[in-house]
Amino acid sequence: MIGDGPVDLVYVMGWVSNLEAFWQEPSVAGFFYRLASFSRLILFDKRGTGLSDRVPIDRLPTIEQRMDDVRAVMDAAGSERAALFGVSEGGPMCAVFAASFPQRTSALVMYGSYAKRVWDEEYPWAPKPEEREQWYSRIEEEWGSGADIETLAPNAA
């Protein structure tokens, strides 16, 4: 936690997070400090990511389990009610939390998020399954080499 503003703000990161590394990146640290200037900013690495304990590949957490992790983090921070700020896959987690615990949710912000990750007739702007698989393979093969940096962080490219 950082900041002592009147609003609790839980920031739920996307699919890749590492709080230690994020604080070392000046633009990210500056963003966190700005959020903390008007809130009590609550940050955490989701289960299985960053500084959190690893999870076996055959027991990856469900969205409901990860959403319940948000509740556990809020409980540990002594937060009864918070604004939720979900980035990428953090957005659906926050939406499930808000729907499950409306009394503990004061606001919901979703940035770069989505309702679904794979195309279907009712969600035609998402990647088709074969495109999604190609992306997964590329990330796995090129991890740590800047794969997809142009898309995910064009200014850093």
Folded structure, characterized:
With 157 residues, the protein is α/β, with parallel strands linked by helices. The chain is built from six helices and four strands. It has helices at residues 19-24, 26-36, 63-77, 90-100, 129-142, 149-152; strands at 7-12, 39-43, 82-87, 105-111. Strand 3, helix 4 and strand 4 (105-111) form a beta-alpha-beta unit. Helix 3 (63-77) packs across helix 4 (90-100). The radius of gyration is 16 Å and the shape is globular. The two termini are 30 Å apart.
In short:
The chain is of the alpha/beta class.
Structural class: alpha/beta
Mean pLDDT: 90
Number of helices: 6
- Quaternary form: single chain
Search tags:
single chain; 157 residues; alpha/beta; 6 helices; 4 strands
Give the SSE layout.
Elements: E1 7-12, H1 19-24, H2 26-36, E2 39-43, H3 63-77, E3 82-87, H4 90-100, E4 105-111, H5 129-142, H6 149-152
Parallel strand pairs: 1-2, 1-3, 3-4
Helix pairs in contact: 3-4
